[in-house]
Design brief:
Layout: E1 3-6, H1 54-58, E2 63-64, H2 78-90, H3 95-100, E3 101-108, H4 113-123, E4 148-156, E5 161-169, E6 172-173, E7 184-191, H5 200-211, H6 214-222, E8 231-234, E9 251-252, E10 255-258, E11 273-274, E12 277-282, E13 287-293, E14 336-338, E15 341-344, E16 347-354, E17 358-367, E18 373-381, E19 386-388, E20 400-402, H7 403-407, E21 426-434, E22 440-461, E23 468-484, E24 487-496, E25 501-503
Length: 504
């Protein structure tokens, strides 16, 4: 997950040429021992952050830095994901096995708290040795941190097996099989009787298979639908209602919708469900196993008011009485960012991201006066979004969507747009994840960090003197937005000056 930024400056000013504020790190410390308190300690090893391999860079290969150059909780980089995938693929016993591998998830193996404390004490901001327990004779400072590891969920399309791999990441060149990948397989195991989440590539294949099925085409004609390009086939996990749904098979029960013949690019096709049709698809072999046209239900009439377009295109008008509101910070923001480490108003934390959960916030702490740094939360995230429809009628009784576990909140995140999704002086973070075939995909400007005015923090007026004091409230917001089918989810973590935080 790489970091980018934008700020409220004239267009001629580069928006991402340098960090907003650069904190002092071990790699940028002064070389003068008299000015460098870290270098005066005799027990400190040589510099831990080494330069890139110039030879590899000259060859144009993505280079992953040494383990110490990335914080243990830093999101996996694009190079690290490529290396993890190449390592697992190279471990395949035969070409057939390797070709059948589908990569559902590549995630960071998050280390235990002791390793995180060690990193925050001596290797990375906030550089606080007090985070470690005190020992007799003083702390032992290691020369390096443990290597980072990645956890991969791999589906074998040929054998219908799901396996979990752990790969150790070292200094590597992210190249294809036969190249210079230096990952090391730590463990691998097949997990029986499970099915991993379906992928967008499988969704597209399933839609094509269903549309090409003759009984389905006949059912569409009965409903007056001639143009199958207007039909939307959304595969849903079959669930586990009986042994027929057992995870020994990779099954989907698609739901059908149909757009109108309008040329609207943002038409809401989900407003016109095609009901009364039962379809069961084998997602491993991409064949229709069951089909039944159970009931002829009329299609809902076309309604432009349901579309995601301007008011003029829906028979109305947009508001014209709202005047421009400009959010400016001429002196820049009050937060400081170093990589994925954020400091603001006594708060500090690290920003992470996974393809399943989306935004993850680590090591949340508050500087509480003389008490120093107080840990508040080790890990914050939205681990699941369950949507039980609760309708006893067919097919709705089986609609219990797990939007994080089955679809992935992170994989469905948006690239945020400055001026609409976020206002003011903005720091953006990119997100990287794997696609089904093992390639790396990047969502630019995926996570937004910015400050917001939040009304009055406190106010008091003395009734005797008529004098009053008032303070504005400021809050820091970290957010991302994702779309799962027809649902938009916005996740906003707010941090307040009153030493509290909450999720909206």
């Amino acid at each position: 997950m790489a970091a980018t930024q934008e700020k409220a400056t004239p267009p001629s000013t580069p928006l991402s040429s340098k960090p907003i504020l650069q904190l002092r790190t071990a790699s940028s410390a002064s070389s003068d021992p008299a000015q460098d308190p870290i270098s005066t300690r005799p027990s400190v090893p040589p510099p831990l952050i080494r330069p890139l391999d110039s030879t590899a860079a000259a060859k144009g290969l993505p280079v992953m830095l040494r383990a110490q150059s990335s914080h243990p909780l830093e999101p996996l980089s694009a190079a690290e994901i490529s290396v993890a995938v190449a390592t697992v693929r190279a471990a395949g016993a035969t070409p057939e096995v390797r070709d059948s591998m589908r990569f559902v998830e590549v995630a960071l193996v998050e280390p235990d708290k002791r390793v995180v404390a060690l990193a925050d004490a001596y290797f990375f901001p906030p550089f606080q040795p007090s985070l470690l327990p005190r020992t007799k004779g003083g702390p032992m400072i290691p020369s390096k941190l443990p290597p980072r590891q990645a956890r991969l969920v791999v589906y074998n399309k040929k054998s219908n097996e799901t396996s979990v791999w752990v790969v150790e990441l070292s200094e590597v060149h992210a190249a294809t099989r036969g190249g210079h990948h230096r990952g090391k397989v730590i463990s691998s195991k097949v997990v029986p009787d499970v099915q991993p989440p379906m992928d967008a590539m499988e969704y597209a294949e399933c839609e094509a298979v269903v549309k090409d099925y003759p009984p389905f085409r006949d059912a569409m004609k009965k409903r007056g639908i001639e143009d199958l390009d207007l039909v939307m086939v959304d595969p849903w996990c079959a669930g586990y209602h009986s042994e027929a749904d057992a995870p020994s098979r990779r099954l989907a029960k698609p739901l059908i919708f149909c757009r109108t013949e309008s040329d609207c690019p943002m038409e809401n096709g989900y407003a016109r469900p095609v009901e009364g049709i039962h379809v069961l698809v084998d997602m491993q072999n991409m064949v229709v196993l069951e089909f039944e046209d159970r009931k002829l239900v009329p299609l809902p009439p076309a309604d432009p008011l349901r579309n995601y377009t301007s008011g003029e295109t829906r028979g109305g008008v947009d508001r014209s009485d709202v005047k421009p509101l400009k959010i400016v910070q001429p002196e820049g923001p009050s937060f400081r960012v170093n990589g994925h480490f954020v400091e603001w108003q006594k708060w500090n934390f690290r920003i992470g991201f996974t393809s399943r959960e989306g935004l993850v916030i680590y090591s949340v702490a508050y500087i509480d006066g003389s008490r120093g740094r107080r840990p508040v939360a080790h890990r914050l995230s939205f681990v699941e979004m369950v949507v039980p429809y609760g309708d006893p009628n067919d097919p709705h009784y089986r609609k219990n969507a797990f939007d994080a576990g089955e679809d992935g909140l992170g994989k469905n995140a948006h690239s945020l747009k400055k001026g609409c999704d976020c206002l003011g002086y903005i720091k953006y973070f990119d997100a990287h994840f794997t696609n089904f075939t093992g390639g790396v995909e990047t969502i630019e400007n995926c996570v937004c960090l910015h400050e917001e005015d939040h009304g009055i923090l406190w106010k008091h007026q003395d009734w005797r003197t008529g004098l009053a004091e008032v303070r504005r409230s400021r809050r820091l917001t970290v957010s991302f937005i994702c779309t799962v089918a027809n649902y938009e989810y916005g996740f906003y973590w707010h941090f307040y000056q009153a030493s509290c935080y909450h999720l909206h």
